[in-house]
What does this fold into?
Amino acid sequence: MRDLLIGIDAGTSVIKSIAFDTKGRQIAAAATPNHYETLPGGGAEQDLARTWADAATTLRQLADKVPDLASRTVAIAVTGQGDGTWLIDAKGEPVAKGWLWLDARAAGVVEEIRARPDDRLRFEKTGSGLAACQQGSQFVFMKRTMPEMLGKAATAFHCKDWLYFKLTGERATDPSEGTFTFGDFHTRDYSEDVLDVLGVTDLRHLLPPIVDGTRHSTGLSPAAAAVTGMLAGTPVVLGYVDVVCTALGAGLLDRERKPGCSIIGSTGMHMRLAETPDDVQLNEAATGYTMAMPAPGVFAQMQSNMAATLNIDWVLGLASGILASQGISRSNGEMIALVDAWIAASRPASLLYQPYVSEAGERGPFVDANARAGFVGISSRHGYADLVRAVFEGLAFAARDCYAAMGPLPREIRLTGGAARSPALRKILGAAIGADTRTSAREEAGAAGAAMIAAVCVGQYASMDECVGEWVTPLLGEAEPSDPDLAAIYERMTPSYMLAHQALRPVWRAMATSQEN
It folds into this structure.
Protein backbone atom coordinates (compact mmCIF):
# COMPACT_ATOMS: atom_id res chain seq x y z
CA MET A 1 0.00 0.00 0.00
CA ARG A 2 1.34 3.44 -0.95
CA ASP A 3 0.72 5.61 2.10
CA LEU A 4 3.78 7.85 2.48
CA LEU A 5 5.13 11.09 1.02
CA ILE A 6 8.79 12.08 1.31
CA GLY A 7 10.03 15.65 1.55
CA ILE A 8 13.73 16.34 0.97
CA ASP A 9 15.00 19.67 2.34
CA ALA A 10 18.60 20.51 1.42
CA GLY A 11 19.38 23.40 3.74
CA THR A 12 22.59 25.30 4.27
CA SER A 13 23.66 23.34 7.34
CA VAL A 14 21.68 20.09 7.11
CA ILE A 15 20.14 17.90 4.40
CA LYS A 16 17.00 16.08 5.57
CA SER A 17 14.63 13.47 4.20
CA ILE A 18 11.33 13.27 6.07
CA ALA A 19 8.54 10.70 5.67
CA PHE A 20 4.93 11.83 6.20
CA ASP A 21 1.73 9.88 5.99
CA THR A 22 -0.89 11.16 3.54
CA LYS A 23 -2.62 13.14 6.32
CA GLY A 24 0.55 15.08 7.14
CA ARG A 25 1.76 13.24 10.23
CA GLN A 26 5.54 12.97 10.41
CA ILE A 27 6.62 9.33 10.50
CA ALA A 28 10.42 9.42 10.50
CA ALA A 29 13.37 11.64 9.65
CA ALA A 30 16.95 11.20 8.49
CA ALA A 31 19.54 13.96 8.28
CA THR A 32 23.19 14.52 7.50
CA PRO A 33 25.32 17.67 7.91
CA ASN A 34 25.75 19.77 4.80
CA HIS A 35 29.19 20.98 3.76
CA TYR A 36 30.37 24.20 2.15
CA GLU A 37 33.54 26.26 2.17
CA THR A 38 34.19 29.98 2.39
CA LEU A 39 36.80 31.63 0.21
CA PRO A 40 38.83 34.86 0.33
CA GLY A 41 36.92 37.74 -1.19
CA GLY A 42 33.53 36.63 0.12
CA GLY A 43 33.07 33.37 -1.78
CA ALA A 44 30.93 30.52 -0.44
CA GLU A 45 30.83 27.29 -2.45
CA GLN A 46 29.43 23.78 -2.19
CA ASP A 47 30.42 20.61 -4.02
CA LEU A 48 27.58 19.39 -6.24
CA ALA A 49 28.55 15.71 -6.26
CA ARG A 50 28.84 15.58 -2.50
CA THR A 51 25.48 17.33 -2.08
CA TRP A 52 23.78 14.69 -4.23
CA ALA A 53 25.58 11.87 -2.41
CA ASP A 54 24.51 13.29 0.96
CA ALA A 55 20.88 13.64 -0.17
CA ALA A 56 20.86 10.05 -1.44
CA THR A 57 22.33 8.90 1.87
CA THR A 58 19.45 10.46 3.80
CA LEU A 59 16.95 8.50 1.68
CA ARG A 60 18.77 5.26 2.41
CA GLN A 61 18.90 6.14 6.11
CA LEU A 62 15.19 6.88 6.05
CA ALA A 63 14.56 3.44 4.57
CA ASP A 64 16.38 1.92 7.56
CA LYS A 65 13.80 3.56 9.84
CA VAL A 66 10.61 2.98 7.84
CA PRO A 67 9.65 -0.57 6.85
CA ASP A 68 9.06 -1.02 3.11
CA LEU A 69 9.67 2.67 2.47
CA ALA A 70 10.26 2.30 -1.27
CA SER A 71 7.09 0.36 -2.00
CA ARG A 72 4.98 2.60 0.27
CA THR A 73 6.09 5.94 -1.19
CA VAL A 74 3.46 7.83 -3.18
CA ALA A 75 5.85 10.60 -4.26
CA ILE A 76 9.11 12.36 -3.41
CA ALA A 77 9.40 16.16 -3.32
CA VAL A 78 12.59 18.20 -3.05
CA THR A 79 13.23 21.72 -1.82
CA GLY A 80 16.41 23.45 -0.71
CA GLN A 81 18.36 26.60 0.02
CA GLY A 82 17.62 29.41 -2.41
CA ASP A 83 19.66 31.82 -4.53
CA GLY A 84 23.15 30.91 -5.73
CA THR A 85 24.39 29.44 -9.01
CA TRP A 86 24.97 25.74 -9.66
CA LEU A 87 26.33 25.21 -13.19
CA ILE A 88 26.31 21.93 -15.14
CA ASP A 89 27.42 21.12 -18.68
CA ALA A 90 25.55 19.46 -21.54
CA LYS A 91 26.38 16.00 -20.19
CA GLY A 92 24.98 16.86 -16.75
CA GLU A 93 28.36 17.14 -15.05
CA PRO A 94 29.20 20.04 -12.71
CA VAL A 95 31.21 22.83 -14.31
CA ALA A 96 32.35 24.18 -10.95
CA LYS A 97 31.30 24.13 -7.32
CA GLY A 98 27.93 25.70 -6.59
CA TRP A 99 27.88 29.32 -5.49
CA LEU A 100 25.67 29.73 -2.42
CA TRP A 101 23.35 32.45 -1.16
CA LEU A 102 26.13 33.28 1.31
CA ASP A 103 28.45 34.28 -1.54
CA ALA A 104 29.20 38.03 -1.46
CA ARG A 105 31.57 38.32 -4.44
CA ALA A 106 28.99 40.13 -6.55
CA ALA A 107 28.44 42.94 -4.01
CA GLY A 108 30.10 45.51 -6.25
CA VAL A 109 27.93 44.45 -9.19
CA VAL A 110 24.82 44.94 -7.05
CA GLU A 111 25.79 48.49 -6.07
CA GLU A 112 26.46 49.33 -9.71
CA ILE A 113 23.16 47.97 -11.07
CA ARG A 114 21.02 49.32 -8.23
CA ALA A 115 22.41 52.82 -8.89
CA ARG A 116 21.05 52.78 -12.45
CA PRO A 117 17.53 54.18 -13.15
CA ASP A 118 16.49 51.12 -15.13
CA ASP A 119 16.89 48.91 -12.05
CA ARG A 120 13.43 50.15 -11.02
CA LEU A 121 11.98 48.35 -14.07
CA ARG A 122 13.72 45.14 -13.02
CA PHE A 123 12.39 45.56 -9.47
CA GLU A 124 8.80 46.18 -10.59
CA LYS A 125 8.89 43.09 -12.84
CA THR A 126 10.45 40.71 -10.34
CA GLY A 127 9.10 42.34 -7.18
CA SER A 128 12.53 41.56 -5.75
CA GLY A 129 15.49 43.71 -4.79
CA LEU A 130 18.90 42.83 -6.18
CA ALA A 131 21.44 41.25 -3.83
CA ALA A 132 24.83 39.58 -4.16
CA CYS A 133 23.34 36.21 -3.28
CA GLN A 134 21.18 36.06 -6.42
CA GLN A 135 21.93 34.26 -9.63
CA GLY A 136 21.44 37.42 -11.70
CA SER A 137 24.20 39.42 -10.00
CA GLN A 138 26.40 36.31 -9.83
CA PHE A 139 25.96 35.87 -13.60
CA VAL A 140 27.24 39.41 -14.18
CA PHE A 141 30.25 38.85 -11.91
CA MET A 142 31.05 35.54 -13.62
CA LYS A 143 30.81 37.14 -17.07
CA ARG A 144 33.41 39.71 -16.06
CA THR A 145 35.81 37.48 -14.17
CA MET A 146 35.20 33.83 -15.19
CA PRO A 147 33.92 33.77 -18.79
CA GLU A 148 35.61 30.42 -19.49
CA MET A 149 33.57 28.76 -16.73
CA LEU A 150 30.30 30.16 -18.10
CA GLY A 151 31.30 29.04 -21.58
CA LYS A 152 31.38 25.42 -20.41
CA ALA A 153 27.93 25.59 -18.83
CA ALA A 154 24.68 24.38 -20.40
CA THR A 155 22.30 24.93 -17.47
CA ALA A 156 22.24 27.08 -14.34
CA PHE A 157 20.51 25.49 -11.38
CA HIS A 158 19.79 26.29 -7.77
CA CYS A 159 20.43 23.65 -5.09
CA LYS A 160 17.05 21.89 -5.25
CA ASP A 161 17.06 22.02 -9.07
CA TRP A 162 20.34 20.10 -9.07
CA LEU A 163 18.93 17.43 -6.75
CA TYR A 164 15.75 17.18 -8.86
CA PHE A 165 17.94 16.72 -11.95
CA LYS A 166 19.90 13.93 -10.25
CA LEU A 167 16.65 12.27 -9.17
CA THR A 168 14.95 12.48 -12.57
CA GLY A 169 17.31 13.62 -15.32
CA GLU A 170 15.04 16.62 -16.02
CA ARG A 171 16.44 20.15 -16.17
CA ALA A 172 13.95 22.53 -14.54
CA THR A 173 13.38 25.18 -11.91
CA ASP A 174 10.22 26.26 -10.08
CA PRO A 175 8.09 29.44 -10.31
CA SER A 176 9.42 30.93 -7.07
CA GLU A 177 13.13 30.81 -7.94
CA GLY A 178 12.63 31.32 -11.67
CA THR A 179 10.71 34.56 -11.43
CA PHE A 180 12.10 36.40 -8.41
CA THR A 181 15.54 36.52 -10.06
CA PHE A 182 14.87 36.69 -13.80
CA GLY A 183 11.10 36.91 -14.24
CA ASP A 184 7.83 38.76 -14.01
CA PHE A 185 5.85 37.77 -10.93
CA HIS A 186 2.60 38.74 -12.67
CA THR A 187 3.13 36.03 -15.34
CA ARG A 188 5.25 33.55 -13.34
CA ASP A 189 7.64 33.34 -16.30
CA TYR A 190 10.99 34.74 -17.38
CA SER A 191 11.16 38.37 -18.49
CA GLU A 192 13.34 39.53 -21.37
CA ASP A 193 13.24 43.04 -19.86
CA VAL A 194 14.81 41.79 -16.63
CA LEU A 195 17.55 39.91 -18.48
CA ASP A 196 18.26 43.07 -20.47
CA VAL A 197 18.52 45.29 -17.37
CA LEU A 198 20.93 42.82 -15.80
CA GLY A 199 22.94 42.60 -19.00
CA VAL A 200 22.70 38.80 -19.22
CA THR A 201 20.48 38.30 -22.27
CA ASP A 202 23.31 36.29 -23.82
CA LEU A 203 23.00 33.79 -20.93
CA ARG A 204 19.27 33.14 -21.47
CA HIS A 205 20.11 29.65 -22.74
CA LEU A 206 21.33 28.68 -19.26
CA LEU A 207 17.90 29.13 -17.68
CA PRO A 208 15.94 25.87 -17.40
CA PRO A 209 12.19 25.60 -18.03
CA ILE A 210 9.92 26.64 -15.16
CA VAL A 211 7.62 23.84 -13.93
CA ASP A 212 4.95 23.98 -11.23
CA GLY A 213 5.26 21.08 -8.81
CA THR A 214 1.55 21.16 -7.95
CA ARG A 215 0.87 19.99 -11.52
CA HIS A 216 4.08 18.41 -12.79
CA SER A 217 6.09 15.36 -11.74
CA THR A 218 8.68 13.08 -13.33
CA GLY A 219 9.50 9.48 -12.52
CA LEU A 220 12.56 8.59 -10.45
CA SER A 221 15.28 7.52 -12.87
CA PRO A 222 16.77 4.00 -12.76
CA ALA A 223 20.18 5.48 -11.94
CA ALA A 224 18.76 7.46 -8.99
CA ALA A 225 16.77 4.43 -7.85
CA ALA A 226 19.97 2.40 -7.67
CA VAL A 227 21.69 5.06 -5.56
CA THR A 228 18.80 5.87 -3.21
CA GLY A 229 17.16 2.46 -2.80
CA MET A 230 13.80 3.85 -3.95
CA LEU A 231 11.71 2.40 -6.79
CA ALA A 232 12.33 3.62 -10.34
CA GLY A 233 9.30 5.47 -11.68
CA THR A 234 8.21 6.86 -8.29
CA PRO A 235 6.81 10.36 -8.97
CA VAL A 236 9.30 13.09 -8.11
CA VAL A 237 8.11 16.67 -7.62
CA LEU A 238 10.23 19.81 -7.78
CA GLY A 239 9.16 21.88 -4.80
CA TYR A 240 9.28 25.63 -4.48
CA VAL A 241 12.30 27.26 -2.78
CA ASP A 242 12.82 26.37 0.88
CA VAL A 243 11.52 29.64 2.35
CA VAL A 244 8.23 29.24 0.43
CA CYS A 245 7.90 25.61 1.50
CA THR A 246 8.67 26.55 5.11
CA ALA A 247 6.12 29.37 5.04
CA LEU A 248 3.57 26.95 3.61
CA GLY A 249 4.25 24.39 6.32
CA ALA A 250 4.22 27.07 9.04
CA GLY A 251 0.84 28.56 8.11
CA LEU A 252 1.33 31.59 5.85
CA LEU A 253 -1.41 30.44 3.45
CA ASP A 254 -4.33 31.60 5.60
CA ARG A 255 -6.62 33.80 3.54
CA GLU A 256 -8.87 34.62 6.50
CA ARG A 257 -6.37 35.82 9.14
CA LYS A 258 -3.60 36.93 6.73
CA PRO A 259 -0.83 36.46 9.31
CA GLY A 260 2.79 37.36 8.98
CA CYS A 261 5.27 34.49 9.03
CA SER A 262 8.84 34.70 10.30
CA ILE A 263 11.51 32.05 9.92
CA ILE A 264 14.09 32.64 12.64
CA GLY A 265 17.09 30.60 11.60
CA SER A 266 20.64 31.56 10.67
CA THR A 267 18.96 34.30 8.66
CA GLY A 268 15.60 35.94 9.30
CA MET A 269 12.85 35.74 6.70
CA HIS A 270 9.70 37.78 7.28
CA MET A 271 6.68 37.28 5.02
CA ARG A 272 3.20 38.53 4.27
CA LEU A 273 0.60 36.91 2.04
CA ALA A 274 -0.44 38.67 -1.18
CA GLU A 275 -3.56 37.06 -2.65
CA THR A 276 -3.23 38.77 -6.05
CA PRO A 277 -0.41 40.47 -7.96
CA ASP A 278 -2.08 43.82 -7.20
CA ASP A 279 -1.81 43.09 -3.46
CA VAL A 280 2.01 43.10 -3.69
CA GLN A 281 3.35 46.32 -2.11
CA LEU A 282 6.74 47.39 -3.47
CA ASN A 283 8.85 49.78 -1.38
CA GLU A 284 10.83 52.80 -2.52
CA ALA A 285 14.12 51.26 -1.41
CA ALA A 286 13.60 48.42 -3.95
CA THR A 287 14.33 45.64 -1.46
CA GLY A 288 12.70 42.35 -0.51
CA TYR A 289 11.46 39.45 -2.59
CA THR A 290 8.16 38.51 -4.16
CA MET A 291 7.86 34.75 -4.62
CA ALA A 292 5.07 32.71 -6.12
CA MET A 293 3.28 30.40 -3.70
CA PRO A 294 2.08 26.94 -4.79
CA ALA A 295 -1.49 28.20 -5.17
CA PRO A 296 -2.96 30.05 -8.17
CA GLY A 297 -2.32 33.81 -8.10
CA VAL A 298 -0.93 33.84 -4.54
CA PHE A 299 2.45 35.25 -3.51
CA ALA A 300 4.69 35.45 -0.48
CA GLN A 301 6.14 38.92 -0.16
CA MET A 302 9.33 38.84 1.88
CA GLN A 303 12.01 40.88 3.49
CA SER A 304 15.07 39.00 4.68
CA ASN A 305 17.79 40.03 7.07
CA MET A 306 21.11 38.27 6.59
CA ALA A 307 21.73 37.36 10.23
CA ALA A 308 19.25 36.19 12.84
CA THR A 309 20.42 33.42 15.17
CA LEU A 310 23.99 34.09 14.00
CA ASN A 311 23.80 37.09 16.35
CA ILE A 312 22.68 34.89 19.25
CA ASP A 313 25.44 32.39 18.52
CA TRP A 314 27.95 35.24 18.53
CA VAL A 315 26.92 36.82 21.84
CA LEU A 316 26.65 33.48 23.64
CA GLY A 317 29.95 32.43 22.10
CA LEU A 318 31.64 35.35 23.86
CA ALA A 319 30.69 33.92 27.23
CA SER A 320 31.48 30.31 26.37
CA GLY A 321 34.84 31.41 24.97
CA ILE A 322 35.75 33.17 28.21
CA LEU A 323 34.67 30.13 30.22
CA ALA A 324 36.69 27.85 27.95
CA SER A 325 39.81 29.96 28.57
CA GLN A 326 39.36 29.10 32.24
CA GLY A 327 38.95 25.41 31.53
CA ILE A 328 35.16 25.44 31.87
CA SER A 329 33.23 23.83 29.03
CA ARG A 330 29.65 24.88 28.22
CA SER A 331 27.64 23.67 25.24
CA ASN A 332 25.37 25.92 23.17
CA GLY A 333 22.38 24.23 24.78
CA GLU A 334 23.65 24.99 28.26
CA MET A 335 24.23 28.63 27.30
CA ILE A 336 20.76 28.96 25.76
CA ALA A 337 19.23 27.69 29.02
CA LEU A 338 20.62 30.78 30.77
CA VAL A 339 19.11 33.29 28.34
CA ASP A 340 15.72 33.68 30.05
CA ALA A 341 17.39 34.47 33.37
CA TRP A 342 19.71 37.02 31.77
CA ILE A 343 16.83 38.73 29.99
CA ALA A 344 14.71 38.78 33.16
CA ALA A 345 17.59 40.48 35.00
CA SER A 346 17.94 43.29 32.44
CA ARG A 347 15.94 46.41 31.60
CA PRO A 348 14.08 46.55 28.27
CA ALA A 349 15.54 48.74 25.50
CA SER A 350 18.29 50.21 27.69
CA LEU A 351 20.64 50.08 24.69
CA LEU A 352 20.40 49.28 21.00
CA TYR A 353 22.02 46.50 18.99
CA GLN A 354 22.36 46.58 15.22
CA PRO A 355 22.11 42.86 14.24
CA TYR A 356 24.30 42.88 11.12
CA VAL A 357 26.87 40.34 12.25
CA SER A 358 27.02 38.56 8.87
CA GLU A 359 30.12 39.34 6.82
CA ALA A 360 27.80 39.60 3.81
CA GLY A 361 26.22 42.73 5.35
CA GLU A 362 22.49 43.28 5.05
CA ARG A 363 19.88 42.77 2.32
CA GLY A 364 16.56 43.76 3.88
CA PRO A 365 14.88 46.12 4.21
CA PHE A 366 18.01 47.90 2.98
CA VAL A 367 20.94 46.52 1.00
CA ASP A 368 24.42 47.27 2.30
CA ALA A 369 27.24 44.75 2.00
CA ASN A 370 29.28 46.88 4.43
CA ALA A 371 26.71 46.74 7.26
CA ARG A 372 28.15 45.47 10.52
CA ALA A 373 26.82 44.75 14.01
CA GLY A 374 27.28 47.08 16.94
CA PHE A 375 25.88 48.35 20.23
CA VAL A 376 24.66 51.92 20.73
CA GLY A 377 24.25 53.44 24.19
CA ILE A 378 26.53 51.30 26.36
CA SER A 379 27.39 52.81 29.72
CA SER A 380 29.33 51.58 32.75
CA ARG A 381 26.16 50.23 34.35
CA HIS A 382 25.56 47.74 31.54
CA GLY A 383 26.59 44.14 32.00
CA TYR A 384 26.60 40.97 29.94
CA ALA A 385 22.88 40.29 30.59
CA ASP A 386 22.07 43.68 29.04
CA LEU A 387 24.10 42.79 25.94
CA VAL A 388 22.23 39.50 25.55
CA ARG A 389 18.87 41.23 25.87
CA ALA A 390 19.90 43.92 23.38
CA VAL A 391 20.85 41.25 20.83
CA PHE A 392 17.41 39.64 21.12
CA GLU A 393 15.77 43.06 20.87
CA GLY A 394 17.91 43.90 17.84
CA LEU A 395 16.54 40.83 16.05
CA ALA A 396 13.01 41.94 16.92
CA PHE A 397 13.54 45.51 15.70
CA ALA A 398 15.04 44.17 12.47
CA ALA A 399 11.96 41.97 11.98
CA ARG A 400 9.67 44.95 12.58
CA ASP A 401 11.75 46.98 10.10
CA CYS A 402 11.20 44.24 7.52
CA TYR A 403 7.43 44.03 8.06
CA ALA A 404 7.05 47.82 7.96
CA ALA A 405 8.68 47.85 4.51
CA MET A 406 5.83 45.67 3.17
CA GLY A 407 2.84 47.61 4.47
CA PRO A 408 0.82 47.64 7.74
CA LEU A 409 2.25 45.53 10.55
CA PRO A 410 0.47 42.16 10.90
CA ARG A 411 -1.69 41.45 13.91
CA GLU A 412 -0.43 37.87 14.17
CA ILE A 413 2.98 36.33 13.45
CA ARG A 414 3.49 32.63 12.84
CA LEU A 415 6.97 31.64 13.90
CA THR A 416 9.16 28.79 12.77
CA GLY A 417 12.86 28.01 12.92
CA GLY A 418 14.99 26.88 15.84
CA ALA A 419 14.82 30.16 17.76
CA ALA A 420 11.00 30.15 17.70
CA ARG A 421 11.19 27.72 20.63
CA SER A 422 12.59 30.48 22.85
CA PRO A 423 9.86 32.04 25.05
CA ALA A 424 12.04 35.13 25.52
CA LEU A 425 12.41 35.69 21.80
CA ARG A 426 8.68 35.17 21.16
CA LYS A 427 7.78 37.70 23.85
CA ILE A 428 10.26 40.31 22.63
CA LEU A 429 9.39 39.81 18.95
CA GLY A 430 5.65 39.97 19.57
CA ALA A 431 6.00 43.18 21.57
CA ALA A 432 8.31 44.85 19.05
CA ILE A 433 5.83 44.22 16.23
CA GLY A 434 2.72 44.59 18.39
CA ALA A 435 1.42 41.22 17.23
CA ASP A 436 0.27 37.96 18.77
CA THR A 437 2.62 35.05 18.07
CA ARG A 438 1.81 31.44 17.22
CA THR A 439 4.11 28.50 16.69
CA SER A 440 3.41 25.15 15.14
CA ALA A 441 3.95 21.68 16.50
CA ARG A 442 5.29 20.85 13.02
CA GLU A 443 8.95 19.91 13.42
CA GLU A 444 10.03 20.14 9.80
CA ALA A 445 8.01 22.85 8.07
CA GLY A 446 10.21 23.02 4.96
CA ALA A 447 10.10 19.32 4.16
CA ALA A 448 6.38 19.31 5.01
CA GLY A 449 5.75 22.18 2.58
CA ALA A 450 7.52 20.26 -0.18
CA ALA A 451 5.52 17.12 0.61
CA MET A 452 2.31 19.18 0.53
CA ILE A 453 3.13 20.24 -3.04
CA ALA A 454 3.53 16.57 -3.92
CA ALA A 455 0.26 15.70 -2.17
CA VAL A 456 -1.61 18.18 -4.37
CA CYS A 457 0.29 17.07 -7.48
CA VAL A 458 -0.69 13.41 -7.13
CA GLY A 459 -4.33 14.27 -6.35
CA GLN A 460 -4.43 13.63 -2.62
CA TYR A 461 -6.06 17.09 -2.31
CA ALA A 462 -8.04 19.16 -4.80
CA SER A 463 -6.30 22.39 -3.77
CA MET A 464 -3.47 23.65 -1.59
CA ASP A 465 -5.99 25.37 0.71
CA GLU A 466 -7.61 21.99 1.35
CA CYS A 467 -4.21 20.47 2.09
CA VAL A 468 -3.39 23.31 4.53
CA GLY A 469 -6.61 22.59 6.39
CA GLU A 470 -5.38 19.08 7.22
CA TRP A 471 -1.58 19.40 7.29
CA VAL A 472 -1.10 22.83 8.93
CA THR A 473 -4.07 24.33 10.79
CA PRO A 474 -4.52 21.53 13.38
CA LEU A 475 -0.86 21.85 14.43
CA LEU A 476 -0.93 25.58 15.21
CA GLY A 477 -0.60 26.44 18.88
CA GLU A 478 -2.65 28.96 20.79
CA ALA A 479 -1.88 32.63 20.16
CA GLU A 480 0.46 34.26 22.68
CA PRO A 481 -0.76 37.86 23.14
CA SER A 482 1.64 40.76 22.77
CA ASP A 483 2.67 42.34 26.10
CA PRO A 484 1.18 45.88 25.91
CA ASP A 485 3.59 47.45 28.41
CA LEU A 486 6.64 46.04 26.65
CA ALA A 487 5.14 46.96 23.28
CA ALA A 488 4.83 50.58 24.39
CA ILE A 489 8.51 50.67 25.37
CA TYR A 490 9.59 49.25 22.02
CA GLU A 491 7.28 51.60 20.13
CA ARG A 492 9.13 54.53 21.68
CA MET A 493 12.52 53.01 20.87
CA THR A 494 11.80 52.09 17.24
CA PRO A 495 12.65 55.53 15.76
CA SER A 496 16.05 55.41 17.51
CA TYR A 497 16.76 51.99 16.02
CA MET A 498 15.93 53.31 12.54
CA LEU A 499 18.06 56.44 12.99
CA ALA A 500 21.01 54.37 14.21
CA HIS A 501 21.34 52.18 11.12
CA GLN A 502 20.72 55.13 8.81
CA ALA A 503 23.44 57.17 10.53
CA LEU A 504 25.92 54.29 10.58
CA ARG A 505 25.87 53.55 6.85
CA PRO A 506 28.60 56.10 5.94
CA VAL A 507 30.63 54.82 8.89
CA TRP A 508 30.40 51.24 7.60
CA ARG A 509 31.47 52.37 4.14
CA ALA A 510 34.43 54.30 5.49
CA MET A 511 35.54 51.33 7.59
CA ALA A 512 35.29 48.99 4.62
CA THR A 513 37.35 51.38 2.48
CA SER A 514 40.04 51.74 5.13
CA GLN A 515 40.30 47.96 5.52
CA GLU A 516 40.80 47.53 1.77
CA ASN A 517 43.80 49.87 1.76
In short: Residues 484-516 form the longest helix (33 residues). Residues 83-155+175-210 form a domain with the Nucleotidyltransferase; domain 5 fold (CATH 3.30.420.40).
